[in-house]
Structure formats: structure tokens, C-alpha cells
Amino acid sequence: MRKFVIVDLETTGHSPTKGDRIIEVGIVVIQDGKITTDYSTFINPGVEIPPFITNLTGIKQTDLSDAPSFDSVATDIVNLFKDGYVVAHNVPFDLGFLNDQLQEVGYKPLTQPVIDTVELSRILLPIAPGYKLGQLAEYLELQHKNPHRAISDAKVTSKLFSYLLDKLNKLPYETLFQLKQLEPLLKSDLNDIFDDLLEEKSFQSLDRDDIEIYRGIAIKKDKPATNNEQTISVSFGELVDGLYNESGMLAKAMEHYELRSGQKEMSETIFDAFQSRKHALIEAETGTGKSLAYLVPAIYESVSNKKRIVISTHLTQLQAQLFEKEIPLIKKLLPFDFTIELLKGKQHYLSLKRFEKELQSLGQDNYDITLTKAILLIWLTETVTGDVEEIQLPSSGKQFFHRLSAETEGGLDVKSPWFTRSFYQKARTKAQKANIVIVNHALMCADIVSDYQLLPSYQQVIIDEAHHLESTAAKHFGLRLDYVSVQSLLNHVGSLEEGEWLKRIAEKYPKAKQRLENSRWNFIWQESKTDTDELFRYLFAYVMDQQTKDVSVNDVGRYQYSWNQDKEMSTKWSAIKEMVSRLSFNLRDLIHFLSVTKEVVNTTELNEDNDELEEIQTVIDRMQMIIDYLEQLFYQNDDTLIKWIEIEAFGAKNSVYLFCEPIDISKILRTNLFDKKASVILTSATLTMRQSFSFIKERLGLQDANIMERKLQSPYSYDKQVQLMIPNDFPSIQYGNQSDFIQATCEAILSLAEITNGRMLVLFTSYDMLKKSYQLLREIMDEEFIIIGQGISSGSRERLKKNFQAFDRAILLGTSSFWEGVDIPGSNLSCLVIVRLPFQPPDHPIYQGKASQLKENGKNPFMELALPNAVIRFKQGFGRLIRSSTDRGIVFVCDERIVKARYGKYFTESIPDVPITYKSTQKLMQKVERWL
Length: 932
What we know:
It holds the Pfam family DEAD. The chain is built from 37 helices and 26 strands. It is of the alpha/beta class and 932 residues long. Strands 10-11-9-12-18-8-19 form a seven-stranded parallel sheet, sandwiched between helices.
């Protein structure tokens, strides 16, 4: 049996080359599957410990004053590692530090084989929520008594490592064989371990009945979709009475249940809308429990009348919440069975057919792609959905997945051996037999205008987060083109050089090879790449030239330029159109050569299951789409469309994105959705402005005749739980005085933080202002407060939120996506700062296009568009603070327009009634201290 030496170090910082030193060593030795040694010691580093490290580890300077120096324990440490694997949770860090200090005191560096448990966990635990040691310990229920202490971390790492070895041992032979092929490009030295396991399993039959082996890939078996006949013996009235009463089924099923009158009213309203074949607008304020409220009537209606009902959400986050929380609860509560399935776009599902091909080509893989292949191999033994949202892939692994998604396989032939195993096809089959199908807005919009039916037929739909329907529909009915997507396609196709996709096809079909070699493929392919680069570089320069007049900056720092070709500088714009024409011409030539190649492939008996035919057709379709997009963007004059360019001002000189969207989607939605469906229910916490639905009705194309409207109050006592405060002494920002305003904002944040111990979310409307505020706060605040800035601190929105919750004294600065969908319940958040009222910049291309149309129709763009959008956004931000009946907090609005401007009352009259204080910053702080 092998010897594994698990090590964890605590250090004064991240970099030994910058003078950081080891302060604690923890080592656990495993032999014959058992712990034989554990070793722990403090190390006197001879340097000061930073306060951050003391806060993190609990190790103080006094703990180290009598500790040994590293050179006095180096021999003991080296002896422990003798003839063993070095195992650590992030091997490069621990081994790098150890070797640096060993060499410093005259020892040779450790050169044994290594195993990184971060890498191994990413591969073997593909659906884990995260890969930090604490997250994995919680996920696997491993006891972790003293996080960030070396011996405790080493012991937990040893338990994790034993778990991972055990899981490796249970894998099918085929999966282990495929992993062994990938091993040379991994960080961990697993070759000998794989050899042992393969030898052990080589003469054993597969002992897992949940796994199927097909064409050398181990796949988890799925239960076939069932179509149960369900019956209901209770009326809807009896059902909701029994559910929502104080002593009803919900009260019995949930701890700390609170009766919410709005929840029952919402269920009844939706049921009435279904019965009367009407559409409904329902604003359900925070705390109503709307997910449960719409699921109950939807399920009852579907089962009792054998109708399929679609539920559409904006983000996958809500879909996950429905499946993890609401649906399991309803399954316990309802006295009848039902089925709910999730259906997504093809790009979300893994194509087994594509994956098989990619497994066979190892030549040009980088580390991320190798790691992604290893992750997918394990995931296939666990997933029944094949939905990529289940797993966490490395950054370029996400790009790689696009090549493997069901979208790239075109229309999979029913005769293909992969058809019955296709995750996307299985999801469609399940959706056909389900009572409720949950989708997102993008897929629903795609379905309502698609010739090919993407969703099973339905007549009733509930659209949650409906305030996003307009923008999602506009994006879907518009288009987007960028430099990277065009070049990626050309790079994927490649030239007729060794290792390229087209070369591989040409080698397989001699006639195709001959025709391609006689063509000018290589020349035109290279020309297309050059044309693409030149066009996007010229567009970048063109936007930079316009900076003085028509360029805006969006909330993630991109420059935006809205164009109208009748008004562009004729010489330069003509040059752009000439470049577009040249690129389109060359792409048409490439399509011609590919069509000839496809013809040869189609008439060659060698071809068995049309793999190459599908691949070639997919490439042809994507090239044609680029030509069509260029045509629409640069040659079609259409007053109903907004066209704009975005550039990364400080990025690469071809970092350009082209957009086009319809100005008004109300007619499209009315014709394709509201006029065709029997009942469309639109719900959200933010649909009204000053208690009226008129804005949302006009934007979405809803006509009054057939609509039910309900506004459901929150069950929370906002007047007792929230104080709204506005300072009257902030410098005005209207006259370019931004730096003074930012200074005043940061000083207020500091004062509030000292009263609330951090626990503060600060919402910005501008990324530039967020960045400047972050830098200033870092200067004026002591190290007791952790400042987390969106776009500055690394990680996704969810990761930043978790980091915020992990620290006692933290301040989270957010823009754009942080205004909604971020739930931070309880004492984790006691103060919300809204820096500016969330008006869309007047020079934003979409706003400009819509405003121009409103002016032409004799309407006021500010009152009809800017103000309603800002109010709905403000309501979303306001809703971040109170997430339960026990929450209390301050909403501090730095923008006094909410009080002084004529339109300010539109904001205050659109949120729940709360006490409002408009005084000097000093008096506000005194009130905050008293109230909290």
C-alpha cells in the first residue's frame, strides 16, 4: 500500500518570494488506509503577523514567541515525507512554501509525486457547491472543528482524501480507463493509482445496476418518463382552505408558519383567471409567498383538467429554488400526484455524441479542457438530466462545453444510436408527459415565434419575474454579434493543416480532400480571419472617435454608441460597409466549399451515422447566420430597430460587440402570446408605479378588456421594521461635482458601518462610481471592515454574497444585478444604501431609441419611460432589506431628488408606507443609533 502525507500550512501571506513565512505546520500520514502519524507545530517566522491573518486563524504573535524556528524542525518534516505522496488542498501553495523554506535552510526541495485534493474534488465531486475545504467539509458532513488551523485542516483534508479514494474505487472500469488517458495533463500524479484500480477491475463484471456502458462511456441509467392517470376528489375551494388556514396543512408542515392572506388571495385569483380564460397581472410584494401561491392553482388546474401548464422564470436561480424548496413541500401537502419537469434551451444539455468525439481527440487540449473532460466523465455516472447548470466548470471549460452542447448536434437523427440517450430529447419527452413545465423567459419567447415547436403545446402560462419579460423578449427578437464568436467559428473550422477540423474530414474523404486542395480554401479562410480582425478594429476606433458626442458608458464600464447609418460620417462609414461586404463575400465562398464537401460526404458509403454531415451543416448555418446578421446590422434601414456598438475601452482593440433590438415588442407579444393563449398570468414583486399597472400593460401590449388586476400587500410591518432616511446636506452631483458627492457618500457609509457593524449593502447605478467609492473606502476605513466590490473582488454574484455573509463586519458594494434577486435574510443585513435613484442613462442606446419613438407619438419620454423604469428598479432595490417578519433595518438614500424633485413622490408612493426622515447627515446618524 502507498504512503500519503497530507500537509496544511498557515502562513503570514500568499507569497514566499515577497517575504511571507510559515507560522504553523500540520501533517497527517496515511499508510495501509489508516492514519499512522499526525504532527503539528507552530513556527516562529521572525516577522510580524498581519492582523488579517490573526483574524483568519486566531494565531497571535504571542503564540509564536517561544515556537521553534523552521530550520530546527526541517529534518522532522523531511523525514515524514520520505517515500510518500505529497497531498494537500491546493498543492502548489503548500508545497511551494515548504520547498522555498527547505531550500532556504539548506535542504533539497521535495520532488515526490503529488495529489491536489482541490483538483481531485473538482473531478470526483462535480455537483459540490464549492471546492474550498470548509465548503467540502460541510457538503460531505466531515467534522471540521478549527478551520484555518493547520492540523485541523490537515485532518479534514485526510478525511476528504480517503472519501475521494473510496469514490475512485467504485468507478466503472471504462471511466477509470478514460481518466487515465487524461492524467498526463492533470496536476495530480494519479497514473500508478489508476493502473492499480484498472488491474483490479479488469476481470470483474460491472457491479453497479445504476450504470450503463455504451461505446466506452459509463452513463447513469434514467427511469423512463411515466404518464400516471391522476384523479382529484377535492374542490379547489376546499383545497386552499385546508392549505392556508392557521391550523391548515401548511401550518403543520412548516415551522414558524405565519398566515399570509395575500398568498391565499393570489392562488384564488389565478384559479379564477384560468376558469374565466382571462389574463392576470398580480403584484405580490415581498413576503407574500408567491411561488407557492401560483404553483397550487397551476397543479390543480393541470391535474383536474388534464392540461399542461407552463411556468416561466427569468433566472435559473428561481428555478433551482422551486425544485429544491417549493415543489418538495407541495408534494407533501397535496392529496394527489403530479409531475413537474424543467426544460431548457439545447445549449444547456450535454451531447453524448459530441462528447464521444472529443474524448477521442486529446492532442491539443489545455489544462482546463482536460479537467473539464474528467469532470464530465464522473458527472455522467451521476446525472440524469445532462444539464450543465448542475456542475461548476473551469472558465475556458465553459467555452469548451459550447462545442459539446446539444445545440451543436443540429437535429439528431432518430435512427442515431445516441437519440434514445440524448439528454435534450429525454427532457423533451418528460416535458410532453408533465403537468407543469418550468422554462425561462428566453425559451418561452423563442417558442412563441419559432416555426419548430420548442415547447409542448400549452394554453395557460404563469410568467414569474414578469418585469423582465420586455427586456428578455427584446433581446431574443434582436441579435448580437461579437469578434470572439466570429473568430471562434473560423478557428474551429480551421485550415487544411494537420490537426484542424476540416483537415480531419478531408483526410477521411479523398474526393473532398482533392476538391478542397484544388480550391482557394486556405487563402479565403485566412482572408476571412483578417477581414474580421480589421472590421472589428475599425469599429473600435470609430466608436473611440465619437467619444466627444454620442458615446455613453454602461454600468459595467463599456462604451456604447448608438448608430443610424443615415447620420454617420460618410467616408468612414462607407469604409466599414466595404469591410462588411468583403467579409460577407468571403464567408459565402467558404460556405460554397463546405457545401461541395458536404455533397461528397453525403454520396460516400463510408459515412455511417451522418456525423460529418451534421457537423458541416452546423458550420454552414452558423456562417450564414453571421452573414444575415451583418446584412441586418449594416445594410437594412429599419426604424423599428435600435442598433448599437459596445467596446471594452481599455480592452483589446477588437473587443467589440454589435447589438440590435426592436424598439417596441408590445405588438409581437400581443400577437404571439396574449392573443393566442387562453390565460397568461404575469406576476412579480414590482409591476406597478403608484399602485397602477398602466405602464407595464402598455409596454407588454396588454389590452384592458380581458385582464384581472391584483395588488397584494406584504405581510411585513414595514412601518415598524424599516426607516427611510435621506440626508439634506449632500453636495449636489448635478453640476459635475462627482468627487465631493462620492466623498460625502463614503463618509456616510463609514458612519453607518460603525453603528451597524458593517452588514451593509450599497447599491450603485454606475460601475465607475462604485469603483471610485471602493478605492476611497479602502483608504478611509480601518482593516476591521471587509469591503467587497462587484467587478473588483473576484467571484460570481452568489460567491460575493456568500463572502459577505461569512464576515461579521462586511460592506458589499453592488451595481446592476445586485438590485434584485439577492436575498440576505436576518441580521446579516441591517442597512441598505441607495446611492442614486436608478434612472437609466439618457444616452443609453435602448433608452434613446424608445424615447425617440415616444416623442414622435407626442408622449413625454421621461414620464412614460424613464420614471416608471426607475421606480420599478428602486422597488427591487428597496426589497433587498426586509426578507422576514423579524428583520429590521435602515434604507439610506443619498439622492435627495426623492424628496425635492416633483417626481420624488412616485418613488415613495410606490413602496410600502415607511417613516421618512429628511435631515442633516449628523442628525440621521443619531437617529440610526437610537433606532437600531
